[in-house]
Design a protein that fits this description.
Layout: H1 2-18, E1 30-31, E2 44-45, H2 72-83, H3 107-118, H4 127-141, H5 146-157, E3 176-182, E4 185-189, E5 193-204, E6 209-215, E7 221-226, E8 229-231, E9 235-242, E10 249-258, E11 263-273, H6 287-303, H7 313-328, E12 332-338, E13 345-351, E14 361-363
Parallel strand pairs: 4-11
Antiparallel strand pairs: 1-2, 3-5, 5-9, 6-8, 6-10, 7-9, 10-11, 12-13, 13-14
Length: 365
C-alpha cells in the first residue's frame, strides 16, 4: 500500500508542477482518470478513498489489505496536509476520521514534507514509521513548528496513532508575551487607592522575565506592583494610591511590561475623586463673582441683539461662557441638543469626576 501511495503522491506532485490546461490532464488528486483503466473513471480518489471502496482511515487491517486499496489512508493524509478539509476553489472537501477540520499547507510544501520522510526510510517501512519520519521532516523544514503541527494533525485525522518515536516540537522563534489589565479603569478617592490585575501570557518562544512599571501618573499618585517582576504567564497586582491632595480628575496611566526581548504596554483609566464628605453649614457664595458673571452675560446679550433667547446667537455665546467656567472648575461638561424646544438649542450637562455615577444634574435656560 505504501508503494502504491508513493506513486499516487508523486503523480499528484507532477501534475501540479506541469500544470497542464484542459483538455489535457489538469492537476487533481485522482488516479487513472485519463486512461479510464477499468472503464469507471479514476481508480483512486486521494481526497476520499472510500469513494470507490478503499479505506480512508487507518486500522490494524490495512497492512494486510490488497496493496492498491491499502494506499487509501496515506493518500488521504497527503490530501489533508496539502489542501485541508475544505479547500474551496473547486477542490473537493475531504472528511476526516476524527471529525476535525484543517487548512492545508499547499501541495509543494506537503511534497517537501513527504520527500523528507522518504529520505529517512529504513527497511520494513510501515504507516506508523512514516508518521514518525514525516514529523521529523516537518520539524527540520520549519523549526517554528507550523509544518510539524499540520503534519501531525493530518496523521491524527486518518487515525494513524501516536508513536513512541514521534518527535516533539517547541517553537524556537523569538520569545514574546502579551500584557493585559483587568479591570482597565477604576476610581481612587483622595487618600485611598484603586487596584487592577496585570496578566501576562507567552505568545512566542520560551517564557521570559517581565519587569512592570507605570508612567503618566498624576501628581500625588503612586504605583506599586506586587510582584514587580513576573515570568511571562504570571500576574501581578497594581495598586494606585492617591494622596489627600491628589488633583481630582481622570487620567490615563500607562502600564509597561519590559521583557528580555520585547516590551508591551496597556492603558489604565484612573479617576481621582474627592473624599465625598459634604460641607457643613451654609455655602459661602461670592456676591462679587455672581455680579461679575451676570455682567458678562448681560454684555453677551448686548453684543447679540439685546437678548439671549434660546436658539439665538446670544444664547449660544452664553452657553459657551458657562461651559468654559464649569470646565475651569473641574467639571466634565457636555452639550445636549433640545430637539423638543420651539427654538432648538443646547443644554449643558456637567459631571463632577468621581461623583455618584447614578446622579446627573442638567442645567438649562
Amino acid at each position: 500500500g505504501l508503494g502504491e501511495s508513493t506513486g499516487d503522491i508523486m503523480g499528484a506532485l507532477t501534475e501540479a508542477y506541469v500544470n497542464e490546461p484542459a483538455p489535457y490532464d489538469t492537476p487533481d488528486y485522482t488516479v487513472g482518470e485519463s486512461v479510464n483503466l477499468v472503464g469507471q473513471g479514476p481508480i483512486r480518489y486521494m481526497y476520499n478513498p472510500s469513494t470507490n471502496g478503499d479505506p480512508s482511515c487507518y486500522s490494524s487491517s490495512v497492512p494486510t489489505m490488497e496493496e492498491h486499496a491499502a494506499a487509501g489512508p496515506m493518500n488521504h493524509w497527503f490530501y489533508l496536509l496539502a489542501e485541508g478539509t475544505n479547500p474551496g476553489g473547486g477542490k473537493p472537501n475531504s472528511p476526516t476520521c476524527n471529525n476535525t477540520t484543517s487548512t492545508g499547507i499547499g501541495i509543494q510544501q506537503a511534497g517537501k514534507v513527504f520527500y523528507g520522510g522518504m529520505l529517512l526510510k529504513t527497511s520494513g517501512m510501515t504507516y506508523r514509521k512514516y508518521r514518525t519520519a514525516t514529523l521529523k521532516s516537518a520539524k527540520t523544514l520549519d523549526p517554528t513548528c507550523g509544518l510539524f503541527n499540520k503534519t501531525k494533525a493530518a496523521w491524527d485525522a486518518v487515525s494513524v496513532p501516536v508513536q513512541t518515536g514521534d518527535p516533539t516540537c517547541t517553537d524556537t522563534g523569538n520569545p514574546d508575551f502579551s500584557l493585559a489589565l483587568s479591570p482597565t479603569s477604576g476610581t481612587a478617592k483622595q487618600g485611598a487607592s484603586a487596584t487592577t490585575t496585570v496578566t501576562t501570557a507567552v505568545t512566542g518562544g520560551a517564557a521570559q522575565s517581565v519587569t512592570l512599571s507605570a508612567s503618566n501618573l498624576p501628581s500625588g499618585v503612586t504605583a506599586n506592583f506586587n510582584p514587580a517582576t513576573v515570568q511571562a504567564g504570571g500576574s501581578s497586582t497594581l495598586t494606585l494610591s492617591a494622596s489627600a491632595t491628589a488633583p481630582v480628575g481622570t487620567y490615563s496611566v500607562t502600564v509597561t511590561g519590559t521583557g528580555t526581548s520585547a516590551t508591551h504596554t496597556a492603558q489604565y483609566s484612573l479617576t481621582v475623586s474627592t473624599t465625598g464628605t459634604p460641607p457643613t453649614g451654609a455655602p459661602d457664595i461670592s456676591v462679587t463673582n455672581v455680579q461679575a458673571h451676570l455682567s458678562q452675560l448681560q454684555s453677551i446679550a448686548t453684543q447679540n441683539g439685546g437678548n439671549r433667547r434660546a436658539g439665538s446667537a446670544g444664547y449660544t455665546a452664553s452657553v459657551a461662557y458657562v461651559k468654559g467656567k464649569l470646565q475651569a472648575a473641574g467639571f466634565t461638561v457636555s452639550e445636549q441638543v433640545c430637539t423638543s424646544c420651539q427654538y432648538r438649542s443646547n443644554n449643558l450637562i456637567a459631571d463632577w469626576p468621581g461623583g455618584p455615577a447614578d446622579q446627573v444634574v442638567m442645567f438649562g435656560a
